[in-house]
């Protein structure tokens, strides 16, 4: 069970801890020029960009960012927002990007809050990216990210299941156990529409988000024998439900709801609505995520003996414990993928771990972890 005290902490922490005025430590400025070599064999990961200078609403489906259909070889993945940013040219249209490009794109295109953008970007990079080349695929594994680090690292892109921010119980993508966790799933979109009709009058709103998130978890428990819902996925699942409202609704609208034509454009065609304006203030999905979670609290866990065998995992951090999510990710995921790094790989791991820590909420007061030491 989740206590009311923990839920109160969740709301307070998620709603207020991501600050748009955070400054980057001076050591990153020094690290940016110390020992740096920009050549094909030694790619130095630049520090993340800061917040937007002008972070109000603005037209983003503009003449400089026209939608274009996919070309042969273009990569798309499980995140409709990133797919859309690539198809509008805010990200490289081939779908292979750097962390700095990704942070800039989600801020400029959807006005995502800086710290939230940093954390999810470097979580994806550390779990699914190529740390040797500083490139990550927004979809599946590709040679376009360059030679991969040694096993057990995967550099599998954001479609890689169960490591980073993406995972099971997606709203409109299938679970990885069924063979395709990144393509548009028309059956699930019809479920999405049905819940929007029943609970939102034909729109996706906060009530729909809470009910459909719960339904998506129960669906995976009942159909996926390998269903896993532990940190960080047990947190990011609620954030993605919230960001549909926070980021994909036109910034000029006074109602926080998404119509189904716009939803289909994002999910299937990776296309912003015509004349689309981004949110009027930086968004992170955190206040709404806490409300969605509290409607149907779900403890982290997994199916342990086939379908309908969901068992809580007491070793996984919960949504009320952001520092636990951070430490779980570093100690389990990152060290599991990189048990004994050396040379450039070790250096880039240290730097990327510095960068993800910049995305931890200030109010949480998380202890910074240094599993590979410091530069």
UniProtKB/TrEMBL annotation:
Entry keyword annotation includes Metal-binding: yes
Keywords (A to Z) from UniProt: Heme, Iron, Metal-binding, Oxidoreductase, Peroxidase, Signal
Heme haloperoxidase family profile domain: residues covered: 63-290
Alphabetized Gene3D superfamilies for the sequence: Chloroperoxidase-like
Keyword set includes Kinase: no
Entry coiled-coil feature ranges: none
UniProt xrefs under Pfam families: Peroxidase_2
InterPro entries: Chloroperoxidase, Chloroperoxidase-like_sf
Name of this protein: Heme haloperoxidase family profile domain-containing protein
Protein source organism: Ephemerocybe angulata
